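Reopening this ticket.

The earlier resolution said the output was attached, but the attachment link was broken on my side. Pasting everything inline this time so it's all in one place.
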Amino acid sequence: MENLKKSGHLDRIHINVCFVGSRDENLAGKGWEIFAPNLTIYGFDADRSACDALNANLAAKNVSWTEKHIPMAVWDSSGKQKLYVSRNACGSSLYPPKLSMVERFSSYQEESGIWEFSTTEGSFTTYSIEDIETISLDDFFGKIDPQEIDIIMMDVQGGELNVLEGASNLMKSGILAVVAETMFIELYENQPLFGDIDVYLRRQNGFTLFDLSYIARGKRRGIPILSKERRGQLFFACEAFWFRDLMEHDKNRHLTTPDRILKLACIADILNFSDYALELLVELTRRYGEDKNYNFAKSIVESLAQTSFATEHGLDSIHILAKIKDYLD
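Inline output:
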């Protein structure tokens, strides 16, 4: 990405990020700031104080991109819903907690360790029920400019599918990637699970699942044994990644413009799918390389030359470069 920034290729695109449930996120610290000033981040969270703190922090830092956090709950429609506020605010949801399921587990184990939770500590115990106003993303972005969002990221405690269903117009206009915390068991009553979200994105909107990361597995309460082969029931994935596959010519044809392919390559690289980013940049150069604005051959070679594979085996051993050799100066 640094090579694309230096060469000016990033100057012609503007990345629009939407994060629902943004109270604890610092997206700029995760690499998105490279697109500044051509970067707009919209954060949404039902916690007004958290949004105020985030906006104040951004103002104090005088950041070089546009970012604002809106104190609203996002849902599949605009109206009123009940918010079940847990003693641990991170567990609050528009779905009521399913304590009969929660109480069966004493802890969950993620890749980086074990965190204890219990209903007595309040991770899921309801502290209060509040009537709140909700808005759908289609309603919110239908009233402002730009109306195009490139990526939706979510941490909404069971409401992921509701958020997506309220963004159907945005989906049609060109969302390229979705990142969400998803659950494999019902920690909230009647919540959609990972499979429901995957079917919606894959079958109805042409996305492809790329990865699940930081998968947590539950440890059953009062049972001291675990198999070495099966380390507990799937609990949730801190991040599930879906992308449009713009390499498949029979899918998403309305999005296979040069700028959209470039945006998708950039997003994939920021999210550490460098292989997909490279594949897209090679294809973009192969299709549109006669236009210098979409000739990425030099940047691709410079990036690959810095890899340990190229150092050990040489650039000639990277066969994908044959597709763009005619576009090298």
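Reporter confirms the inline version is readable. The CA atoms of residues 43 and 108 lie 28 Å apart. Residues 274-288 form the longest helix (15 residues).
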